[in-house]
Design a protein that fits this description.
By secondary structure, the chain is an alpha+beta fold. 24% of the residues lie in helices and 22% in strands. The protein has 11 helices and 24 strands.
Length: 451
Amino acid sequence: MNWILPEGASLDFEGVAGPVRIVRGLGGGTQGQVYEVELEGERLALKWYLPACIARDRGLERRLGESIRATAPTDAFLWPIALLRASASSRPLIRIREESFGYLMPLRPASYVGASEHAAGRLAIGLRQVLRACFFLADAFHALHLAGLCYKDVSLGNLFLEPGSGRILICDNDNVAVDGSGEGAVLGTPGFMAPEVLLGQARPGADSDLFSLAVLLFRLLTRHDPLRGQMELAIRCLDEPARRRLCGEDPVFIFDPVDARNRPDPIEHAAALITWPIYPRPLQALFEQTFCRGMKQPSRRTLTGQWKQELARTLDSRVLCVSCDQENFRPAGGSRPCWSCGTPLPEGVSLTLPRGTVAAAPDNELHPHHFDALAGEDLRHPIARVVAHPQDPRRLGLRNLSAEAWSAEAADGRPHRVAPGESCSLAAPIRIHTPAGPIAVQRPARPAPAA
């Protein structure tokens, strides 16, 4: 690539006090190029714009300044932190003649991988981590929309995942604008744009963000597009008019419960047919809400808070198959076979809390929202985690992740102290008293012996 800023050079910029060393180029696109840079010993990222991008979007520099002053809604955003212009001494070294500018942002850690790697099936990541990534994504957009902002270009290309934890990072936040302002040249990414934006009936905003967010969540959970079904296969030439019809004029959700015209093909769309049945019915219903009623009625689309609530509940129902060890989700008040091997899932041990029930499966966690009605769903600060015994994975315990001791009451009524960092066994029905609230360990009733 022909880099605009010379790699290895130290350049002076208006906007920061010291020189910025251009470590290496990271990539580029239609808007500009991104570099790894060093400023006063700290590694950051620098996005430098092409003149054509600046010409298309005259309000870009002003919006960047407003974003920098407003700060990031959450730490999930690689948010702009300083606006840079080349000083007179550095301008001759920049390989474009026209006036340009860029901005500094945090550098993405090496442990984060592009979400497109997961969508393409090239990333080893468990269902728990994928669901956590979906939750953190909904949480980030919840905070963004509460701040009166919209993102406008939600897509796989702007999202990074940490496979081990499910944490996320969102890049390209220079597209963010005040909701309803209609500012900016960016309309969105094909395949993620809301129908009304694709058809030119509306500018991107929070309502179109909700559609694009649902597409991204669906693709993370199923590794398939929600509108790619048999209607697309019937088209010989998938040109722009055809895409406009499939995604804007007559879009049909592949799992629409009423309209079966666009069902997935068993051969071409096998991933969708395998993954969709894995998830609980309430989570599926949120996709139907956006892709059926909300397809042409933006006000009916699933809200970010609804996504957070249901994704957290889905994680609470996570269990492991006793035969193949695959992750499954136990339905409320019922049973189902393992999606992978067909073995019936046992009822299993559960933790009854003041606000809900959590299945006792390794790595499942308890959070403040399980105890406090005023605490919103938040997965960042767990109070406890279910752990398996290192020698016998069938023996489960509950580890105290809080800063205060618990009192665990055994079946014989005798209490014992569980210090922070320690675990208590879940082998027998017990009651655990924590500062946050009580935890009751429930085991399935044993069947009565045959007469």
